[in-house]
Every structure is written in structure tokens, then in C-alpha cells.
Specification:
The structure holds 3 protein chains of 3 kinds. By secondary structure, chain A is an all-alpha fold. Chain A contains 10 helices and no strands. Chain A has helices spanning 2-17, 26-35, 37-71, 73-86, 95-102, 106-130, 134-142, 148-182, 188-197, 201-229. Chain B starts with a strand and ends with a helix. Classes of the chains: A mainly alpha, B alpha/beta, C mainly alpha.
């Protein structure tokens, strides 16, 4: 909280000396945001609706594939080269291709968000599930637990999975926002790009702060949920 | 060769009293051991003697050059065995390190990196690294605790051989009563935390010490029993 | 070998799907077309010059980030006071999409290379500073005490090196991503701009080909880094 005050103070001071065009005062940006709060909230909903979709898809795919890679040796050996190749590749390089395949609408934005979020979740899940104490699994077998993957492996790997999921959340936000900036018709990213081109700097700040604030709030919410979910473990 | 003298050493961390007034003395060329239960503060005391940690109260006097060997071999991962041993030497003297590699029986491993060494080997390097500086005082903080029993026996014997020749003052911290009695001239027995000196015992075993002889010696058995009863009290 | 099989399978599907009609050929060109175009691109001077521009921005941004970030992070790691000030600032900056800052940077510094390299530096600084900070803070005190007892200065950077190298590996990928994103946004020159031009001109195969080249480069740089580090620093143990 003190850091926030510090940043605001620094911003305000800097805006006194810089031109209002380059760096408007925090008050001015706040006024602007307030004045259009209805439309702003609409854009927030648009963007984060896509983030939610991208993130949900990435979680499902990431945990499923990650568990597969972590537990099934054949799958790991088969998929490792593909994953290792794609992991360091900049997903945004695939965005124009996504535009071609999925068009300019929400689908391509969700796709980039998905691509950015997938790998941290997948890799963390693969690592976590592969390190589950085998004795836990044997105990489950001895007790004839049904669906051991869901009831034993994933919960045991949960701390690792959630660490990856946190990074994935940021990835989803970055991906969707960037996609909207590069080529879009709506959303906070698009708003930022448009205001850049019309030289409406205050609006640019509104967009970037809006996405950062919501992103920050989501991250905090995630940490809280993580703590509750892991309350039973040493980490929580 | 130097003496170690510590008076009224006290160490407090917030509300926690780790050491509560310790007096300690080691004469020149003596090998003194400090024994105590785990977590009693003996390592902290050694760190204070070495000047790495400030005492909350009390004085410590260690004139002369200090060498130190920790429980975890604090080797520099980016240096070879030779590089580690020569670490404290000025450039022109680096060649001396070769002799010390032989001294700790690591011949052939001069160019090995710490990641290739076993725990025991790493401690030998750590020991050589300190010895090459010709220390007046050698501080050893449970140096053989993380090593298997066989290696530990070997290292203890080698330490004694090296010490008999160099005769620096040695402060050896350990939680093993056997080890303390086998190595030391005198043994300080510490209490549970907060650490206080329960008793100081003279170890009247003749030198040089052979393991079989020592174990059979009635003096050893008596001292062993005495220390155990002190620790259990 | 199973991996090679999987790759072959994937490429096979990619080759067949557009030809057989599972996907529209105008949307997803077959693999062989993309491969051929990629090979041709690597001989085309306009593409190569754009590649060089992007590469230069990537290298400059990465280098500056390392030169500033490593000492800064190490200093932060050793000073609890500094950490208490900077940690919340980093936490605040965490959810800000660095890509969004691209436009802000252009606003502040113009559309030249200062902004383009500056954004790369900003993006790379975070993994580098964080890893240097953790590395420096995590050095075992015994190591520093040992150095002191031997009359040497505390070897903090060397001891933190494994962590720093991990952070640098991440920064390499972040730098590539940031360069590309900035070029897709503000065009001008560079691989991203080239790609977007191809998109505007409906040159689908080119778009896919450039994407493939960039992906390949990202992989190659990462692999080269890991191999290079292992060879240069044979004492390093564990994962990077």
C-alpha cells in the first residue's frame, strides 16, 4: 500500500514538470476514467471475459496434458520435443496466423491468451505430477481408490500446479490485451491502441491502469484462493 | 600459536536466549572440544569466536590467524580443488596448494570441481583450504557430521595426524561424545538452550591415539558415561 | 525416438489437413508450402535486413538489462532495507502488461530505437533483477564467512551465478517476445513489421513462414544458451 502511495506521489510530481500531453496528472486521468465509467466497465468486461475464457481453456488443457506428460512415460517421451520447441517460442509470433485462421473477432484474442497461459500451467503440472510421492499412489491402489488421478495425483501436485496457474493468469491477461492492441475492434487493448493513434494520451493511461488494476485484483484473489485450497499442505 | 579466551559470552535473538553466559579458554596448541545436544547454541558460539556473529554481551579474544571448517563444506563451486585450496593465497604462492592436496589425500583430484566430489572429499578440501593459511587457531563446526561413519573415522584419524605436526589451537564443536573424547585434550559439556557450561573435563588419554586402544581404555569409558549422564540430566 | 514420431505425425497432419479439406487452404497452408517459403525468406535481402534490425534490438535490450539488472539485483539481495522498498514496487508492476508500455514508451521517446530497445530492457529487467536478487540473498552465510576468513572479498556474484543464469535464460525469451510485440504494434522495421505487411497483403504462406522462422530462432537461441553455458561453466550443477 505504501508502495502505491509512493508511485502515485512520484507520478504526480513528474506530471508537474512534464507536459500534460506526455504525462497527464493522476487527477486528470482519474477524472477521465470516472467520466466514462460506464463505457470503461464495458470494455473491462469485454477484455476480461476473453481472459476468463482463455484462462479456463488453458487450465483445463494445461492440467490435462501436464498430468499426462507427468504420469505417462510414453506421453512424456512423445510430447517432450514438441513442448520443448514451442515453450521458448514467442507465442505472439503466431498471432497473425491466428488472425488468418480465426478472424479479427474475440476468437483470435482468446487464442493468444490461451497460448500464453498454457505453457506455464502445463510445465508446472507436468513437474508437479511427476514428483508425487509414489507411496501416496500405492496407498491409493491398496485402498482401491477410484479415479486415483483425480483423487490423489492432482491434489498432491496442487501446490506446483497453482504456482504455474498464477503465472498462467498473467499470461492470459497479457495475451488478450496485446492481441486487442495489435488488431481488434474492442476491449481495453483496442482502446489503448485507438487512443494512441488519436493522440489521446489520458485515455491511454486510463486503459493501462484499468487492465493493471483488474489484473492486480485477480492476482490477489488468486493468492487468497490458493491459500485456502492449500490450507492442508505445508505451503498453505 | 595462540590461545582462545571467551568470557561471559551471551547471545540473544529478540526474546530467545541462545547463549547465556559462557566462559571458555583453550591454551596454545590445545585441541578442545565442545559437546552439546543439537540446537543448544554451540555452533552459534563458534561463529561468535570466529568473529562472524556479534555477541550480545561478553568478550572474545582470539589473537592470531583463524581458519574455519563448517559442517556444510562451504566450497566455492566455481573453483577446482586446487583453486579452492589456494583461494586465500596471493598469486605467487598458489603453487603450494599442490602439496596440500596430497596432505589431505586427494591426489589426482586437483582439477575436479566440487560437484564431482563426495561429502567427505569436500571436507578434506575445506580442511586443506584452512590449513594452507597456517592458522594459529582452527575452528571446526561439526565438520564430519554429514559424512558416513567409515569416512568419519578416517577423517578423525587424519585430522589428528595433521594436528600432531602443526599443533595449532583447535576448537572442535560436535554433538558426538565419541568424537569429542577421541580427539580432544579437554571437553566442554554444554546444556540445552540457552547454552551454559555444565562441566569441563580433562581427557587423560595418551597420545598418539589409536581407535582400538582408546575404545578399550577405562578412562574413555568413564568419561563417556560421565558426559552422557551430564547430557541426559 | 517416440518424440520424433510425434513430431512427424504432427507435421503429417499439418501437411494433409489443408490438402484434404479439413481446414481451408487459404487459412492454413500445408506444411511443405510453409517450409519452402521459409527457406526462400532466409535468402531474401529485405527479410534478412528486417531480421537483423530485430536481432540488434533484441541483443541491445538484453545486454543493457543484464548490465543494469545483475548488479542491481545483487545489491537488492544483500540489503534487506532496499528489498523492503523494491519488493512491493515489483509486485505492483507484475500485473502491468509490459507490451502495453510499448505505446507509452513511443509516446515518451518517439518511435525510434530508444523506445524499442527501452521496452526490451524494461521487460528483461524483471526476470534478471528477481533472479539476481534471490541468488544474492540465498548465498549461504558460511560461504561468505569462509571467504572472509581467507582474506578475500565476499564472492556474491559468483555464488549467485546459477540463479542469475536461470533468470537470463528467461530474459532471452522475454526479449524475443517483446521485440516482436513492439514491431507488430508500431511497425516500421523488423520481423514483426515484415509479418504484418504480409498479413495486410494477404500473403498467408509468408505469415506462417515467418512465424515458423521466429519459433525456430527462439528454440535455437534457447538451446544455444543452455549448451553454451554448460560448456563455458563446467562447474555448474543442476538445471538451468
Amino acid at each position: 500500500m505504501r508502495a502505491l502511495a509512493l508511485v502515485l506521489a512520484a507520478w504526480w510530481l513528474a506530471s508537474r514538470s512534464a507536459s500534460a500531453f506526455v504525462l497527464p496528472a493522476p487527477g486528470e486521468v482519474a477524472d477521465r476514467a470516472w467520466g466514462e465509467r460506464g463505457a470503461l466497465l464495458d470494455q473491462v468486461a469485454v477484455t476480461f471475459g476473453r481472459v476468463a475464457a482463455a484462462y479456463a481453456l488453458a487450465c483445463v488443457a494445461g492440467v490435462a496434458l501436464g498430468t499426462l506428460i507427468g504420469r505417462v512415460d510414453v506421453a512424456r517421451r512423445a510430447l517432450r520435443p514438441i513442448v520443448s520447441f514451442l515453450f521458448p517460442a514467442p507465442k505472439v509470433a503466431l498471432y497473425p496466423a491466428m488472425l488468418i485462421v480465426l478472424g479479427l473477432g474475440a476468437a483470435s484474442k482468446i487464442a493468444l491468451g490461451f497460448a500464453e497461459a498454457l505453457f506455464p500451467i502445463l510445465l508446472a503440472t507436468a513437474a508437479g505430477t511427476s514428483r508425487v510421492d509414489p507411496r501416496l499412489v500405492w496407498t491409493g491402489q491398496a485402498l482401491k481408490v477410484r479415479a486415483p488421478l483425480l483423487r490423489i495425483v492432482v491434489p498432491a501436485a496442487l501446490p506446483a500446479i497453482l504456482t504455474g496457474a498464477r503465472i498462467g493468469l498473467v499470461g492470459a491477461i497479457v495475451g488478450v490485451f496485446l492481441a486487442e492492441m495489435i488488431a481488434g475492434a474492442d476491449g481495453l487493448g483496442h482502446q489503448m491502441a485507438i487512443s494512441y493513434r488519436t493522440l489521446d494520451t489520458a485515455e491511454m493511461y486510463v486503459a493501462i491502469i484499468a487492465v493493471s488494476l483488474v489484473g492486480y485484483a485477480l492476482d490477489r484473489a488468486f493468492l487468497l484462493a490458493r491459500r485456502r485450497a492449500l490450507a492442508w499442505s505445508a505451503e498453505g | 600459536m595462540a590461545e582462545i579466551e571467551a568470557r561471559g559470552v551471551r547471545k540473544v535473538y529478540g526474546d530467545l536466549v541462545a547463549i547465556d553466559g559462557l566462559d571458555f579458554a583453550a591454551g596454545s596448541g590445545e585441541l578442545v572440544s565442545i559437546v552439546g545436544p543439537s540446537g543448544c547454541g554451540k555452533s552459534t558460539f563458534l561463529h561468535i569466536v570466529g568473529g562472524f556473529v556479534e555477541p550480545s554481551a561478553g568478550t572474545v579474544s582470539v589473537p592470531g590467524r583463524l581458519g574455519i571448517v563448517f559442517q556444510e563444506p562451504a566450497l566455492f563451486a566455481w573453483k577446482t580443488v586446487l583453486g579452492n585450496i589456494a583461494y586465500g593465497l596471493p598469486r605467487r604462492e598458489r603453487a603450494r596448494a599442490v602439496r596440500y592436496v596430497e596432505l589431505v589425500k586427494l591426489g589426482g583430484f586437483e582439477r575436479a570441481y566440487p560437484k564431482e566430489l563426495s561429502g567427505g572429499m569436500k571436507q578434506r578440501v575445506a580442511l586443506a583450504r584452512s590449513l594452507i593459511m597456517d592458522p594459529d587457531v582452527l575452528l571446526m563446526d561439526e565438520p564430519f557430521a554429514a559424512v558416513d561413519a567409515q569416512t568419519r573415522s578416517t577423517l578423525q584419524a587424519e585430522l589428528l595426524q595433521i594436528w600432531e605436526r602443526a599443533r595449532m589451537t583447535v576448537l572442535f564443536v560436535t554433538h558426538s561424545v565419541d568424537e569429542a573424547l577421541f580427539l580432544a585434550d579437554r571437553v566442554y559439556v554444554l546444556s540445552q538452550r540457552p547454552a551454559r557450561v555444565k562441566e569441563v573435563l580433562e581427557v587423560g588419554l595418551p597420545r598418539p591415539r589409536e581407535r582400538e586402544q582408546v575404545l578399550a581404555d577405562p578412562i574413555y569409558r568413564d568419561l563417556h558415561a560421565r558426559i552422557w549422564s551430564l547430557l541426559e540430566a | 525416438m517416440l518424440g520424433a514420431l510425434a513430431v512427424a505425425l504432427l507435421l503429417g497432419v499439418w501437411e494433409l489437413a489443408p490438402r484434404v479439406g479439413w481446414v481451408r487452404e487459404q487459412s492454413v497452408p500445408p506444411f511443405s508450402d510453409v517450409a519452402r517459403e521459409a527457406a526462400s525468406l532466409l535468402g531474401r535481402p529485405e527479410f534478412l535486413s528486417d531480421l537483423a534490425s530485430s536481432g540488434a534490438r533484441w541483443a541491445a535490450g538484453f545486454a543493457v538489462a543484464v548490465l543494469i539488472g545483475v548488479p542491481l539485483g545483487a545489491w537488492m539481495g544483500r540489503s534487506r532495507r532496499v528489498r523492503r522498498i523494491v519488493d512491493p514496487l515489483l509486485a505492483l508492476g507484475y500485473p502491468v502488461p509490459k507490451a502495453a508500455l510499448i505505446l507509452l514508451f513511443v509516446l515518451w521517446f518517439g518511435a525510434g530505437n530508444v523506445a524499442r530497445v527501452g521496452i526490451v530492457v524494461t521487460g528483461c529487467l524483471i526476470p534478471i533483477v528477481i533472479s539476481a536478487m534471490h541468488g544474492a540473498a540465498g548465498v549461504a552465510p558460511e560461504l561468505l564467512w569462509a571467504a572472509r576468513s581467507l582474506g578475500r572479498r565476499p564472492p556474491i556474484l559468483q555464488a549467485a551465478l546459477p540463479q542469475i543464469l536461470s533468470g537470463a535464460r528467461i530474459a532471452i525469451a522475454v526479449a524475443i517476445f517483446t521485440v516482436l510485440a513492439s514491431e507488430l504494434l508500431i511497425r516500421g522495421s523488423g520481423v514483426g513489421a515484415y509479418m504484418f505487411d504480409a498479413l495486410d497483403n494477404g500473403q498467408t504462406v509468408t505469415v506462417f513462414a515467418v512465424a515458423a522462422i521466429v519459433a525456430g530462432l527462439g528454440f535455437a537461441l534457447d538451446a544455444a544458451y543452455v549448451l553454451g553455458v554448460r560448456r563455458a561453466l563446467p562447474w555448474l550443477e543442476g538445471e538451468l
